Amino acid sequence: MTTAARQIATGNEGLDAILRGGLPAKRLYLLEGAPGSGKTTLSLQFLRSGQQAGEKTLYITLSETAEELAVVAASHDWSIDDFSVFELSAMEDVFGDDRQQSVLHPWEMELGETIKLIQAQVERINPTRVVFDSLSEMRLLAQDSLRYRRQILGLKQFFAGRDTTVILVDDMSGSADGSDAHLHSLCHGVITLERLTLDFGAARRRLQVQKLRGVDFIAGYHDFTIQKGGLDIYPRLVAADHHDAYVGEPVGSNVAELDALLTGGPLRGTSTLLTGPAGTGKTTIALQYVHASCERGERATIYEFDERVGTLALRAKAFGLDIQAHIDSGCLTIHQIDPAELSPGEFATRVRREVEERGARMIVIDSLNGYLAAMPQEQQLILQMHELLSYLSQKGVVTFLINPQQGLLGSMASNLNISYVADAVIMLRFFEANGRIRKAISVIKNRAGAHEDAIREFRIDAKGVRVGEPLTAFKGVLTGTPEYTGNREPLMEDR
Q: How many CB atoms lie within 10 A of CB 74?
């Protein structure tokens, strides 16, 4: 009866989370990816983790010199002096100039001698962690696919009886489609790194654990970036893995008429979609709730895709909301987001860190159009947003999503069908009455409970956010440009 192998840390917190703790020890793994995808950096993190734990480590490089490896390490403020490095260029003295004169084919001698030198180096150092970089050089030396696979199998058998965890690095140049099914079957686990070049913006990188025997890892693609200090991997969010007990009480805005629309305000653990044309006050309503949250001492976070943070603070102050004071106190954090530089996985991880590390109880995403620009595939965007909202719901966080509609007047549409995901939908509209353009507010749906079905006038001025009496006499509501035909008494005037 065999027991499960102990797991060792990879040196990367995100990857360890995906692997549910790390790699099973004493196994052979394949780390594959195109040049520039981050294989060398992740390999160095793996060895540094072992070195910091007091283990002996060895980096076997057949494709790079020790100097080139040192440059990569130095870019992260690391040093390769902490572990042993064996490089192919050192073999020139072993072969000498006579190797081309042998009656044997040069590749036969080179490959055999290479394997022998590698085994001798391993036996001399007796490391517990080994990185073999890269298999493409082995293919060139072998010349023949059958001979190459035999040598890989021989390496696996050589390491099988040792207390050694081995990572084989491959640049996926072995076949036309970049994959090697036989190599995959030989290894205990396969990790693939990808680098995707978009039409605009920075290149996107993602990671996938294709297989890992005996480990219930998080499957699928995981976005990552290469930062100073290594790979910053963002595990794919699985909402079902996160749940906190909370009371689903209503959260007020300090504007009684506004809260009355949702029978006291949105409940904790729910998401509210604010939709309508530009200029109707969607962001200001969200700011009203954020301001009230900070007044209660509850932390809030705004992710601003569209508007500049400075402009937002000045505009809020003009409406009587001094959010700068809450920013200075640390209760409110506003993150300016550049969609061209952000992947959805990184955004979801940022939100998680705000909730779990900073304790944010209210999240505002302004706007979903900006978030859409961060990811061209709309279907995947909806799925990822659904998972993110499910996670926030599990944590009892109140979420506001701002979704501008296209156009100002007439029949307006949204390029993002997100309304079915949100728990509540508040719609804002322009309407005409007595020769003036006014704003109306109404609640379209509220899964969390009852809501008011009336259309009310809505104003934002120096007195702040104000909601008027229900307006009953409208014409042309379904055209998108309703006209009020009733009497003037319910209308909000300051004359």
A: 11
Return the closest-CA partner of residue 414 out of 400, 424, 432, 428: 428
Q: Is the CB of residue 65 less than 8 Å from the CB of residue 87?
A: yes
Tens digit of each residue's pLDDT, the chain (495 residues): 455 679 999 999 999 999 999 999 999 999 999 998 999 999 999 999 999 999 999 999 987 888 999 999 999 999 999 889 998 665 554 444 443 333 334 445 567 778 888 899 999 999 999 999 988 888 887 888 888 888 889 999 999 989 999 999 999 875 545 567 888 999 999 999 999 887 777 788 999 999 999 999 999 999 999 999 999 999 999 988 888 888 889 999 999 999 999 999 999 999 999 999 888 999 999 999 999 999 999 999 999 988 888 889 888 988 889 999 999 999 999 999 887 788 889 999 999 999 999 999 999 999 888 887 766 655 577 888 899 999 999 999 999 999 988 655 555 555 556 777 899 999 998 888 877 888 999 999 999 888 988 889 999 988 889 999 888 887 765 566 677 888 877 887 764
Instruction: Please name the helix (run of DSSP H) or strand (run of DSSP E) that holds residue 401, with its range, or none.
Output: strand 398-404
Residue for token pair 């895709």: 305
Chain mean position to CA 255: 35
Q: Does domain 7-236 have CATH number 3.40.50.720?
A: no
Exposure string for 332-368, b = 16+ CB within 10 A, e = fewer: bebeebebeebbbbbbbbbbbebbeeeebbbbbbbbb
State how far the Cα of 142 lies from the Cα of 112, in Å rounded to an integer: 9
DSSP assignment of 158-193 equals HHHTSS-EEEEEE-S-SSTTS--HHHHHHSSEEEEE
C-alpha 98/C-alpha 102 separation (Å) is: 7
**Torsion, Cα of 436, 441, 444, 448 (10° steps):** 180
Q: Where are the alpha helices (DSSP H) in 25-178?
A: 39-52, 66-74, 92-95, 106-125, 135-142, 145-160
Give the span between the Cα atoms of 429 and 452, in whole angstroms.
16
- Domain borders along the chain are 7-236, 241-484
* 441: three-class secondary structure by DSSP: strand
Residue located via tokens 């509540």: 424
pTM for the whole thing?
0.86
CB 24 within 8 A of CB 16: no
How many Cβ atoms sit within 10 Å of the Cβ of residue 136? 17
Q: How open is the CA angle 462-253-339, to the nearest 5 degrees?
A: 85
Same fold yes or no, 7-236 and 241-484: yes
Task: Specify the CATH class of 241-484 in words.
Answer: alpha beta
Q: Measure CA 84 to chain center.
A: 34
Alpha carbon of 259 to those of 93, 252, 256: distances in Å?
81, 6, 5
Cα-Cα end-to-end distance for the chain: 87
